[in-house]
Amino acid sequence: MAGGLERVAPAKINLALHVTGRRADGYHLLETLVAFTRHGDLLQAETADRDAFVVTGRYGAEVPRDGTNLVLAARDMLRSAFGATAARPVKLTLGKNLPVASGIGGGSSDAAAAIGLLKQYWRIDTTGEELAPVSLCLGADVPMCLVARPLLARGIGETLEPVAGLPTLPVLLVNPGIPLATPAVFAALVKRSNPPLPPFPGGDIAATVDWLETTRNDLEPAAIGLVPEIASVLETLRDAGALLARMSGSGATCFGIFATDEDARAAAKAIASRRPAWFLQATSIMPTSEPVQDG
Fold first, then answer.
1. Rounded to whole angstroms, how far apart are CA atoms 251 and 248?
2. Over the Cα atoms of the chain, what is R_g?
3. Residue 91 falls in the annotated catalytic set
4. Total domain count for the chain?
5. Can you give the residue range of the structural domain that contains 57?
6. Is residue 232 predicted with pLDDT exceeding 90?
């Protein structure tokens, strides 16, 4: 895009998610190992005479264009915090490549990308880490999406700890095309106090899968009760050769970890021939060692 800036808003994957309790105000306490893929939405910013917001992409029609969109909420948050520094009009274009309400942090990652992009556009002198506590007003997942590297998140997502030793993981993301609202999944939970995550030892793909086998996504049974197709997605991933198949976040997107990128792409091709309406994306999870652009 000539004369503009752009940034990928990567899909956020909950490799493991344990629900460990519930606060008096109703918010659930979590421990989750979070990582980010190389595939995601694309956000662009360019100079304009007046503010504008354009949405394109496969899932663009499902995205609101008003202040309820987290991209615009992030823009307005920065203006509120930085005043005249952030006053210059901007045209924002969101390429919505990820399904909405799908458990992979699309809206939160879009907001984090908007913060990073507009910080650059308006030349705001602060770091993503410094903005993380302020960004919590946009949603519990936004601070971790600002960091956009492997993390252990605790509490309601506000306590973040870097994770060492996560390798590059070839994955296939699959969504059956059914939106699933997070509050409904939490409301359907039968048990809200579960053991925390065991320590993550790091290692290669095989060692990471072995560790993940000792963990869970505690939201998965409740989500399957609401959307039984999730069970079919998980079975399909396992039948296609996934070393591990699990739902991400509150669903309905699931991921399969494969031994190689080629295996993930082959599985995507095979599943697409039978389930053409499903969202399928072979990609990889970014490792701990990969440099991340400051947000």
1. 6
2. 19
3. no
4. 2
5. 4-162
6. yes
